[in-house]
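Below sits our specimen:

——
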Amino acid sequence: MSASFDLPEFRRKAVEPVVCIKAGWNLIKSQYWLFVGLTVVGILLGSIVPFGILLGPMMCGIYLTLFKAKRGQPIEFGDLFKGFDYFGDSLIATLLHLVPLLVVFVPSYIVFYMGLFFLMPRNGEPDPGALFGFFGLFAVFWLVMMVLLILVSVGFTFAYPLIVDRRLSGLDAVKLSIRAAMANFWQLLGMLLLNGLFSFVGLLFCYVGAFLVLPIGFAAIATAYEQVFGLADGDVQPNLPPPPPTFT
């Protein structure tokens, strides 16, 4: 696990959104259905347990396979579960991502329904002006929340790749991801919006298409990571403690 003073350098304004998506497709196309299976299983398994407890390891497993593909190493479906080698750090990164969002969004829903309850009259018709003002204020609030959600999503783009490729701690990976993402903000935002557009088009095809474009999105992020940080020298290694000393 790398210490904070060993954090890798990153490039600014290095991400090329269209290039990332094209390179992502080229990376996976020879084993496309394998990557479809990896990403679908990873997302489904990562979603079945609350608070993202399995999401972090699954994300690490997906990026581990992508980095192996970039290094020309053979890939097996079981590589997905090697993401559990990074369980502790990936869980920290996931909680740092999700908990602040839950702290904001859950009370917001409570306040919304409580406000709506108190605005509804006990007798007679509701006051249109009061309802209009309430929904107007809440629309502005949710617009601000969406902007914050976009900022957070962009900021965490490189967290799991850094854990896998550079074996950073969860906290260091999040901090460095935010710094590097903000230095490439508009480019990353453009790439994520393109990925979102492809996913939306996929949803129009009975939801199945969304799963088919998932691996391209992950591969594009892996390519963006390489543009910003470069790949670490050597093979991807599990983030395990050193073996105990032996005595002869």
